[in-house]
Amino acid sequence: MTDADESMRPAGHDGAPLGKVVMYCLAIMSIAAAVIHFALAAENFPGYWLFSVVTLVVSWLQLGWAIVAIIRPSRGLLYGGVMLNAVVFAGYVITTATGDAIGTAPHSGGLSAFGNGLGAALEAVLAAGCAWLLTAKPARHPVGRQRLIMAPAATGAMTAVLLGVALATAGPGAATSTPSATATATATGTGGGSSMPGMAMPSAAALAIKLPNSTPAGDISMPNPDMQMMTGMRMASSVPCTATPTATQQKAAVSFVDTSWQDAKKYQRLAVAKAAGYRPITPVGAPVVHYLNPAYYRATVEGGPVLNTDDPQSLVYANTPKGAVLVAAMYITYPGGPTPQPGGCLTQWHVHTNLCLTPSLGVVGEVGAGNPTCPSGSVNRVTPPMIHVWFVPIPGGPTAIDAPDQQVVRAAEQVAAPPNGVA
Questions:
Q1: What is the model's pLDDT at position 8?
Q2: Do residues 421 and 269 lie in contact, with contact meaning Cβ atoms separated by under 8 Å?
Q3: Which of 141, 145, 129 lies closest to 3 in space, CA to CA?
Q4: What span, in angstroms and rounded, lies between the C-alpha atoms of 284 and 289?
Q5: Containing domain of residue 345, as a range?
Q6: Residues linked to residue 65 through DSSP beta bridges, in sequence order
Q7: Torsion on CA atoms 90, 91, 97, 100, rounded to nearest 10
Q8: Residue at a domain's end among 168, 194, 215
Q9: Are 224 and 396 in contact (CB under 8 A)?
Q10: Domain tally for the chain?
């Protein structure tokens, strides 16, 4: 009989071993950790299948471990609990630090920071608890039968509350979003949809438009605000743009996209962009980094063309394992400035409402739930209108309004690019 087995044996008619009480509590926490991993796998499967498969395996192992811990605890099971949860916790730490722990691991999991943190905390407690049961003689100490019920019940109640908060605060940064979910968030004011909640829809003819072009981003199609806007975004116009683009507008959209790509190719090398005066205005080393050329933006403010394909005000890079990849040109007007749409509703402008901006348009944070104020030296204000032309195959094509960072990085990994360092 091993020490761990002995610690689970009944301590008499009036008591139970402390180890049995602790084991029940650990089993409850392992079930909660499994639920978090099931949710994480479901959120990321469309864009990060390998990460999701590994996450599903972890989920089933944690769930199976909990069942066996209740039915037939053993010393071998405790060793397995230490190893499993220590490895998963280490994976969380590495993913948080590097964003790429398991091949195609997403840079943000789709759960809130609280949800991800809760999962990691549960794994740390599980590993520590199993190790304690393996080594601590007090685990065999008898405790009252009442504690055998009350301690797991209290653990279950507290874990259920925390798990509910984690799932309820899951962010919209999943690999994909469903139209119905995003439309609901838009209509209720909880998401980042357009200011006009999807009452008018483009015609079937508009939705069927697929225009070939020279970029690696795929065909041009009608932008879909319900699918392509993140939290804190809305369309620049309060009136939904649903008109079917004319033949002239469709031709102009292709020309605009093709010219943007041809003129931006020189900036595929990050060093060329920096030499031209582009500087990062979002955190360096993030999954997606925006660069602004102050001189080009100043020229726009002073009356120059907004859609200057040769000198776009902003460039967007994604950091991938092979280095930074140019993913988009972004044209920015000034507050109240012109927002030309050469492609009609194929070329739509948007703004951000949740960013913390410095006087030089640097983005140093976001406001939102749990973070109501901006860092010192920055203010939250609506950005000037902007429009992307994408050069990588994100959902929606070259004129998609936006996409989650993990989609952009994944798309960037699919295209050829010259060697670059980190953007």
A1: 55
A2: no
A3: 141
A4: 6
A5: 184-412
A6: none
A7: 160
A8: 168
A9: yes
A10: 2
Judge whether 171 and 57 are in contact, CB under 8 Å.
no
Q: Tokens 């993030």: give the residue.
A: 286
- Whether 164 and 245 map to the same domain: the answer is no
63 and 11 both lie in a single domain: yes
Beta bridge partners of 379: 357
- Could you report the per-residue pLDDT of 324-376, keeping only the tens digit for each? 999 999 999 998 899 999 999 999 999 999 999 888 778 999 888 778 899 98
**CB neighbourhood size of 189 (10 A):** 9
Alpha-carbon distance values, 421 to 158, 271, 272, 291, 323 (Å): 46, 9, 12, 15, 5
Q: In the chain, which residues have pLDDT < 50?
A: 1-3, 10-13, 47, 98-104, 107-108, 171-199
Secondary structure of residue 26 in the 3-state scheme: helix
What pLDDT shows up at residue 123?
94
Tokens for 217, please give them: 């981003």
As a whole number of angstroms, the longest Cα–Cα distance in the chain is 88
Q: For residues 279 and 136, state if they share a domain.
A: no
Q: Which residue has the tokens 């582009």?
A: 278
SS3 87: helix
Interatomic CA distance for residues 288 and 316, integer angstroms: 7
Q: Whole-angstrom Cα distance, residue 164 to residue 277?
A: 48
The length of the chain, given as a count of residues: 423
Q: What's the pTM value of the predicted model, to 2 decimals? A: 0.56
Q: What is the DSSP string of 114-144?
A: HHHHHHHHHHHHHHHHHHHHHH-GGGG-EEE
Q: Would you say 247 and 254 are in contact if contact means Cβ atoms under 8 Å apart?
A: no
- Between CA 55 and CA 58 the distance in angstroms is 5
Q: 184 - beta bridge partners? A: none
The 3-state DSSP class for residue 329 equals strand
Q: What is the CA radius of gyration of the chain?
A: 26
Closest by CA to 256, choosing from 392, 399, 396, 395, is: 399
* Statement to judge: residues 360 and 402 lie in one domain: yes
Burial class of residue 409, CB neighbours in 10 A (0-12, 13-18, 19+): buried
Assigned domain for 267 exists: yes
